[in-house]
UniProtKB/TrEMBL annotation:
Domain of life: Bacteria
Record organism: Actinoplanes xinjiangensis
UniProt feature coiled coil, ranges: none
GO biological process, one term: methylation
Biological classification of the source: Bacteria, Bacillati, Actinomycetota, Actinomycetes, Micromonosporales
Keywords annotated in UniProt: Methyltransferase, Transferase
Name assigned to this protein: Methyltransferase family protein
Cross-referenced SUPFAM superfamilies: S-adenosyl-L-methionine-dependent methyltransferases (SSF53335)
Amino acid sequence: MGAPLRRRFRRPPRTRPRCAVLHELAGDGPALELGIGSGRIALPLAEHGIPVSGIDASTDMIAILQQQRGALPVDARIADMAGFRPPAPFPFPFPFPFPFPFPLVYVAASTFSLLGSAERQLTCLKAVAGTLSGGGLFVIEAALPHTVTGNGQQVIVRHVADGVGHAHGLRGL
């Protein structure tokens, strides 16, 4: 993998808040990342003691991750988010002491929307359900569309908690 591509996928500072939230949710881990890519989120989690397994469709991205991971407890496999079957694609036993199922599964950076269709998203959700431990969490970071209210103001949803979107900004159109 060339240096320009590696530089392109360095971990930007804006990943810190995401990692902090995921670290809190993961407890002692482990976590499963869908669309692990270059490890932009997985590597900082692993640096804080959370073992991470991940899947990605890109061999190039996983090659970058493998170069950067060192001895961190991060494992990645080539797989389609809509086509993986729990516990596959991971060999058992894991190369790291990962218990199964996972207490945390997450997908970052609107990657879930790249599945392209509701059918593929549903297939992915079913696979995720098979990987979660009892009480486990599935976190999807996704862009929510801007909503226009009846009075012509645009509501910008900044976060969703307990199933409710919380508007942090209103703008007139």
